[in-house]
Specification:
The protein has five helices and 15 strands. The protein is an alpha/beta fold and 335 residues long. The strands form four sheets. A six-stranded mixed beta sheet has the order 3-14-11-13-12-15. A four-stranded mixed beta sheet has the order 4-6-7-10, with no helix packed on it.
């Protein structure tokens, strides 16, 4: 009975919205057209045949846009924070000159063949990858080499991991995924994506234009050094052999505690920190502790973002995001 009451209260206080805004709230912000799982889940907003809905980065009722500020703290929070690093400072792994670049492609961008190392868990091509597509870390990078393509005309995202161009204009990659940005479909259970957790990367990247507008309206992607051989909604894939319950599973959601004072943070850092309070962060890959992803963009001010480095693991808590779930195979969450 106590569990039923707790769940009811949590659902009343939390849900998928922009800072618990009423249904008339504006849609999630879209990437500007600038320099360089498919299918909608049940209940996803459907564009009008005569006038398609604006292309946002997933609908307002998508889990990435869920307000988690009032969700109950997970019973595993303390153990998970300790495993990532309670005293470890956080790191904005993005800014002017580093981060994950996003290539916005024009309407009609030609598609090319992409071959995959993990073809069985990749969405087949061709993909609209231009020859000058931006690669994470640069052309000679030896890291994850993500290529993130935003197609506002087709309202899709195309994402590649370990992407390398071939001389003939085709590409090879470790894995790849395609997302309908107007839908709430998740990947097949057990499938990876361009990310270890089987999640999309684009919606988890804070962008300089959002920060300039004063609001980042979505959760943020982050990494942890050790994860469990498990995943929880909305993640679809695990990337570990460890069975230790003290380790967080892929898809675990954390938030910056409401008690943390961010009032003196400079504007860009304050916008990101507020997003961490309202929408939280989703564990999406193995990597350095408390490394938060974002775009590589000259409009970021690295000095402002440095304020985020003053945060530490104990400033965060894991939340029970299962209370948002409507369907385990959909990213749509409760209103």
């Amino acid at each position: 009975m106590r569990r039923t009451i707790a769940v009811f209260l949590a659902l009343v206080l939390a849900g998928c919205s922009h800072s618990a805004a009423p249904p008339t709230a504006t849609a999630p912000s879209a990437l500007p057209v600038a320099e360089g799982g498919l299918g909608a889940a049940p209940g996803s907003p459907s564009p009008s045949p005569s006038k398609p809905a604006p292309c946002t980065i997933f609908p307002a009722d998508n889990v990435w846009h869920a307000d988690v500020s009032k969700l109950p703290v997970s019973r595993d929070s303390a153990a998970w924070v300790a495993s990532i690093g309670a005293a470890t400072k956080t790191h904005p792994d993005f800014g002017n000159g580093y981060g994950i670049p996003v290539t916005t492609i024009p309407a009609g961008q030609a598609k090319v063949k992409v071959t995959f190392s993990y073809a069985g868990e990749s969405d087949p091509g061709p993909y609209p990858v231009p020859r000058n597509a931006k690669v994470e870390g640069g052309a000679d990078a030896d890291g994850d080499r993500h290529v993130i393509l935003h197609d506002p005309a087709g309202c899709k995202a195309y994402e590649l991991y370990d992407a390398h161009p071939n001389a003939d204009g085709t590409w090879k990659a470790g894995s790849g995924a395609v997302y309908d940005l107007r839908g709430n479909a998740l990947r097949k259970s057990g499938w990876t994506s361009a990310d270890a957790a089987g999640l999309p990367i684009l919606p988890g990247l804070p962008r300089a234009d959002e920060a300039a507008a004063g609001k980042v309206d979505h959760a943020i992607r982050f990494t942890a050094p050790k994860t469990r051989k498990s995943y929880i909604w909305p993640a679809r894939h695990a990337a570990s052999d460890a069975a230790d319950a003290a380790l967080p599973p892929m898809g675990a959601r954390f938030r910056l505690k409401s008690s943390v004072d961010i009032s003196k943070f400079p504007p860009q850092a304050r916008a990101v920190a507020q997003a961490l309070k309202t929408y939280g962060a989703i564990l999406a890959d193995n990597g350095s502790p408390w490394y938060f992803s974002g775009t590589d963009d000259p409009k970021w001010n690295n000095t402002q973002l440095d304020a985020l480095k003053t945060l530490k693991g104990t400033d965060f808590e894991a939340v029970d995001s299962s209370l948002l779930m409507v369907d385990p195979n959909s990213a749509r969450c409760r209103p």
